[in-house]
């Protein structure tokens, strides 16, 4: 598999110059948007389908109008990027799909945020993967989504919603996301097919890599200490700031324990909260890490804490469980569905509840129980099961394109 960090700036015209007929065309994200998780999902899906013998092509929007500003994710770069993604690319899609060699190919849009492309794709053999509808719910004024958009963002999400709901074939990554999708207001086709196909676990997150083969070393401040881990951004729905008082509540009982954050830098409020604590020097921020570094953190962590208030799936839970890292997570949204019996659940609004979960992760007996339960849970998300489920869906579209199933 290609490493997730190696996304190339290739667009619709640069892929697969040969004229043989593909089985599947995967439509990915615009490279300057730096959608790491979606890029990784695309590459993982491409690799898995190819290994099963399918001929796969990947198409992305070309960087055209935004080329002089491609490193800018706001201002002129953002608006010209919209032109590349939502004006130029759909026209090029429509033109290219007239090619007879694509007459039987399944067209798969791998990210629901690109639902606008569905209007120019053949509906009977096109599908889209919906990872969550949190931003859409936020645009509709749902406070439980924890995703309040800007005015421009609200308009964009309404546009995405209308096109997503008009799609004939949709895959949701969790039952929670499916139910959220069904509750959205809007017009739908009379016979819309929605299936739940859970994400598979990326093989990069595995406990099977011997330590001596790893080229990644933990920072010195972690090599001689146990540590709890959080992975994610500072977005309000990630709720990571509550880990600060929760950890401080148990810090005196575990002098060798550290609280590690991987991802977006601390915001001002988080920095102020940490600096006011006597345990301030035990909070460690790793910054953004590669998949290889993250895998190493999982394999050495005492446990993962995932206190999100809303999620469509919850990748870090499975990544940790697959790495034999015990998990404690929120009891809201999709997280109990994904974690199964392999996590200690807590109330994400309660620092006391999270502190108790931290004690659970540190306790040797409970920790081992969670490790074994997490490993068992991962069998539900075996990569080959996900790939085979997509292949079955593709086959159903070819065999009975005009029937509900």
Description:
The chain has helices at residues 36-51, 75-96, 134-139, 151-166, 175-183, 220-223, 243-250, 268-275, 291-300, 315-322, 335-339, 351-362, 364-377, 383-399, and strands spanning 24-27, 56-59, 106-109, 126-130, 169-172, 193-196, 226-232, 257-263, 283-287, 303-306, 327-330, 343-346. The chain is α/β, with parallel strands linked by helices. It folds into two domains: 4-200 and 383-399, Glycogen Phosphorylase B (Rossmann fold); 211-380, Glycogen Phosphorylase B (Rossmann fold, 3-Layer(aba) Sandwich). The strands form two sheets. A six-stranded parallel beta sheet has the order 2-1-3-4-5-6. Helix 7 crosses helix 12 (351-362) and helix 10 crosses helix 13 (364-377). Mean pLDDT is 90; it is low at 1-8 and 13-17.
In CATH terms, the superfamily of the largest domain is Glycogen Phosphorylase B
- The string of secondary-structure elements, in order, is EHEHEEHHEHEHEHEHEHEHEHEHHH
Unreliable spans are: 1-8, 13-17
Radius of gyration: 22 Å
CATH class of the largest domain: Alpha Beta
The CATH topology of the largest domain turns out to be Rossmann fold
Structural class: alpha/beta
- The amount of helix comes to 25-40%
* Separation, N- and C-terminal Cα atoms: 33 Å
Total individual domains: 2
Q: How many helices in DSSP terms?
A: 14
Biggest sheet record: 6 strands, parallel
Mean pLDDT across every amino acid position: 90
Please state how the strands of the largest beta sheet are arranged side by side: 2-1-3-4-5-6
Write down the overall geometry. globular
Number of extended strands = 12
Report the β-strand fraction as a percent range: 5-15%
- What CATH architecture label of the largest domain applies? 3-Layer(aba) Sandwich
């Amino acid at each position: 598999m290609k490493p997730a960090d190696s996304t190339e700036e290739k667009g619709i015209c640069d892929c697969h110059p040969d004229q043989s007929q593909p089985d599947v065309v995967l439509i990915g994200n615009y490279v300057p948007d730096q959608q790491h998780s979606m890029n990784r999902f695309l590459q993982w899906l491409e690799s898995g389908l190819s290994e099963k013998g399918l001929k796969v092509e990947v198409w992305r929007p070309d960087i055209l109008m935004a080329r002089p500003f491609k490193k800018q994710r706001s201002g002129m770069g953002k608006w010209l990027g919209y032109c590349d993604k939502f004006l130029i690319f759909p026209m090029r899609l429509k033109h290219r799909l007239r090619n007879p060699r694509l007459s039987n190919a399944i067209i798969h849009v791998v990210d629901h945020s690109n639902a606008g492309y569905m209007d120019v794709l053949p509906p009977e053999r096109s599908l889209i993967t919906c990872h969550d509808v949190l931003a859409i719910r936020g645009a509709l004024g749902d406070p439980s989504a924890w995703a309040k958009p800007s005015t421009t963002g609200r308009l964009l999400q309404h546009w995405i919603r209308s096109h997503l709901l008009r799609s004939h074939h949709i895959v949701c990554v969790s039952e929670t996301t499916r139910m959220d999708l069904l509750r959205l207001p809007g017009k739908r086709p009379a016979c819309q097919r929605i299936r739940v196909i859970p994400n598979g676990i990326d093989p990069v997150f595995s406990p099977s890599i011997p330590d001596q083969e790893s080229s990644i070393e933990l920072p010195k401040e972690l090599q001689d200490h146990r540590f709890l881990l959080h992975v994610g951004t500072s977005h309000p729905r990630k709720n990571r700031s509550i880990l600060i008082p929760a950890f401080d509540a148990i810090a005196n009982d575990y002098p060798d324990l550290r609280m590690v954050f991987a991802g977006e830098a601390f915001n001002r409020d988080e920095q102020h909260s940490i600096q006011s604590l006597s345990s301030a020097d035990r909070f460690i921020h790793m910054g953004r890490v590669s998949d290889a570094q993250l895998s190493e953190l999982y394999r050495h962590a005492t446990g993962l804490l995932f206190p999100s208030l809303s999620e469509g799936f919850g990748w870090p839970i499975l990544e940790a469980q697959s790495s034999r890292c015990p998990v404690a997570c929120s009891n809201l949204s999709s997280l109990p569905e994904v974690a199964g019996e392999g996590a200690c659940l807590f109330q994400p609004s309660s620092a006391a509840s999270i502190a108790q979960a931290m004690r659970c992760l540190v306790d040797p007996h409970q920790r081992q129980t969670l490790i074994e339960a997490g490993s068992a849970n991962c069998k539900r998300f075996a990569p080959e099961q996900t790939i085979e489920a997509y292949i079955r869906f593709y086959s159903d579209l070819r065999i009975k394109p005009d029937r509900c199933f």
